[in-house]
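Data card: per-record layout.
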Amino acid sequence: MTDHWSQRVITPAHSLYLVIIAVLLWFLRDVLTASAITVIVAAFGFFWFGSFNYYRGEKAKKPLVYTPRLLRLCIPFTIFNLLLPVLAILAGFHLLPSLFNSAASPVVMQLDIYILALCWILANVFVPFWIFPSSAITQPVEKRIHRHFIDQAKAKLRRMDELTVVAITGSYGKTSTKFMIRELLAERMSVYATPGSYNTPMGICKAINNDLEAHHRVLILEMGARYEGNIEELCDIAQPDIAVVTNVGIAHLETFGSQEAIARTKSMLVKRVAKGGSAVLNFKDERVKQMAKLREDINIISTGGSEAGIKASEILYDNDGTRFSVHYRDEKELFQTKLLGKHNVENMLLAVGVASCFNVRLKTMAVAARKIKPVEHRLELKKEGGLTIIDDAFNSNPVGAKNAVEILSQFSGGRRIIVTPGMIEMGERQEQENQKFGRIIGEAELDMVILVGAGQTEPIKKGIEETHFSKEKVRVAESLFKANELIREYAQAGDIILYENDLPDTFNE
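The structure for this 509-residue chain is written out next.
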């Protein structure tokens, strides 16, 4: 509201409406009848404020869902919005007539109309503010409901004493790694993995309470964090028997404050592993590698780095996905998967590390890897009307964005196009990382670049300009919908289009 005060709170329409009331009250009060004033005030009010359209964005990417929590929030919100006009009208009828000397003046005779008009403006201006007291009122109720779901989930896990809990954290790659682990283990046992990006306390509790069943022997959880203490909160619900840490990047640097704070938070997963359990760590990340020193009473399984116990070699990419060899102990096995990118090779090695805890053979893992499908919106390869789409629209980060551009640059046979709004939630490093991303795009020899949002993508544009990339090939669209219109005008059969990141609906530059 602060950033868009004149568009969302006190708009030009509000100001002009006050001007109209002032003109009617002070200059036309002896000319117009009460009926005429009523028609004028009602007409302007209805057409300007009746639809509340100025609260909406250009076009919603996702429709508003009236969840039970939202419906509970709507109760006090609606009461507040109804209460204010009533109180204002009562106060106006009681106080305002005393401001005028003559009880018989035309102003007093028409005062109720002006009071109603002013109350209309006042109630309209206050609409967005009522969300704050409404939220404060419902907060105790929400906390009680959350506590109930958490207690229910913890009780269910206590009853399933043969269940092994695998928990995954990291700045990037959590969801992809989770589904890889599920596929590798599903060859041998009954496995349940939380759907999508269910990585918050309520998301995990919902999955455990509603979907985890008695026949499941492995529960795979994704544990996300935006603030210090989030991982501990999740481990209080489900203590992991096996911990997986993918990496420590700069995602959510804005809320954590530093990369050291991110590493400290992610390391809590290793500290909370049950005694005698295991931690599978990506040794390619130096901060993750240091976590191996945190515990001596658990089994450490290392992947990725030169000193790691599980490595990959002979990595090749093509239109069907990725091929590479996995080395574990004295074994070597060829893996082939439909997934794209070096980071997915690293994620697969982490999944191999988890599967080794269950004594799954490497050959069995390789068979399962062939069946793995790309996670939705994470380098997902699609075919649409003669176009090849690389959908990497979910929660982009510097490592993933670089990998995606490199993959796009390796495609041949058609023109290569990227559509991106850049990256957010990286604090002070956001402009620097987006400018670096721009240089990567400029050096990739693409055929067209479509940047979504002029202000947000300015650092990317600067980065591109630091290379020899042609300015004529860079277009800026004000929204994803406008970007798609440019695609429809430019693209032809055989072209390859990379959608890199899709900013959240709440983001507005």
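Known properties of this structure: Residues 131-159 form the longest helix (29 residues). The chain has three domains: 5-135, 160-369, 380-500.

See the next section for split statistics.
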